[in-house]
Each structure stands twice: as structure tokens, then as C-alpha cells.
Amino acid sequence: MMKEEAILYDQIMVYCKEYDRLVSSPTFSPEQGPRTNGNAYEQELIWQHYSNTIQAAKILNVDHELVSKWSNTLERLKQIEIGSSGQIKEWYEETTLGSIGEKNHRHLSHLLALYPGNLISVDNKEWMKAAIVSLLDRGDKSTGWGMGQRINAWSRTGDGNHAYKLLHNLLTDGIYNNLWDYHPPFQIDGNFGATSGIAEMLLQSNRGYINILPSLPDIWKNGKFDGLVARGNIIVGV
After folding, report:
1. What CA–CA distances, in Å, run from 220 to 137, 159, 172, 179, 198?
2. How would residue 141 be classed by pLDDT, with cut points 50, 70 and 90?
3. What's the pTM value of the predicted model, to 2 decimals?
4. CB atoms within 10 A of CB 90
5. What is the DSSP track for 7-21?
6. 115: which DSSP letter?
7. How far apart are CA 180 and CA 222, in angstroms?
């Protein structure tokens, strides 16, 4: 399935001379216009899929010619750009924050490379700094699922205190008495996002190594956990 989807993108990606990159076109950043030749949201998703498929093919020791082709495609996506405000640009024609799109929008579509992807990480300080600028611009208030995504995204930055603040906001302002996520009538992705965010604060393994307590808030000075599973089916307790 991964191979066939990669082959599909091989066929539908086009070269955009204006931006000197391969793009998916036309593209639309979810619930935000305009339609454009490529945007960070789709380019990051496509990069992640090619990257995952290359890794799978190498593990299985198959499709060597396609792996070579896909590796070249990755270089031509040029998916991340930093804007004049120091932000991750959601659209390639964007200049400063707010020049396109809605301020404080609940979606973090252009930050999927930070979470759940692994392109933007603490191992790339320039992109991470820009991602934090974009996170601050989007703000801390959102719907339940949006809060869940923000908890996970801030956990990936290593700022445990900010992640904890968002977790606290969700549990005090976004949860019914029965602990269902509040977004009429109910959004289970807010619940899943909260539990996932807690796990991300305690353990991360998305970059090929295990990072223990990567985003620990000051308030969690003492404690323990057991049974969290890192990639590679490695069970971790601390």
C-alpha cells in the first residue's frame, strides 16, 4: 500500500518553476484558503510518506531503483520555508504572519512535520525555532482536538511547562464531567490527544533514538511510569 501510494505521487507531482520545487497542485490548507501550487501541509505529508516508504523498502531489502528515485524526490520537495516573521510558512507566497490566512486559527496544518511527523525536531534548531514562532501565533485556545494537537506539538519542542499548561487548559475548560472531550457533541480525538500528549512529555522515539523525559514540566518533579512503548517495541519504565 505504501509503495502504491508513493507511485501515485510520482505521477501527480509537478515541477513548479516559480518555487523551484516539486509540488502537489492544486493544494488547500485545511479550512484555510487559498488554493495554491503546493503548501507546507501537503508537502510535509508527502515528504513523510516517501521517507517512511524508503525506510520500509530498505528494511525489506526491495525496490532499490524506486528507493533511489524517491530519495531524489525528497530533495526536490523543499517543503519547509521560514517567513519574514520567523515562522514556518503555511503557503510559499506567504511573507509575514497574517499576510495570508486567519490569525490564531485552530488548525496547525503546516506543523504536521513537528507532530506527528519527524522532520521538524530538536535536532534541527532553525526549523524548531520557526515552529515555536508559529505555535505561539496560533495561540493556546482551541477546540478539544485542537488542544490535543497543541499538547503533542509543544511536547515535541521540549517545552514541558507549555505542554502542561495546555493539558491543564484542556482538563479544566474542555472536558465534560464524564471526562469526554467537550466539542459538541463529543470529539474522542481530544481525549486521545491528551493521553498521547502525556506520553510524548515522558517519552519520545520518533527520531531513531529514545528520548527519556524530553518535555518534563517543573510541576512533575517526582513520579514514575511504566509500560510506555518506544518504537521498536521497547517497553520503558522510569
Report:
1. 27, 13, 18, 22, 11
2. confident
3. 0.94
4. 24
5. HHHHHH-EEETTTTE
6. T
7. 28
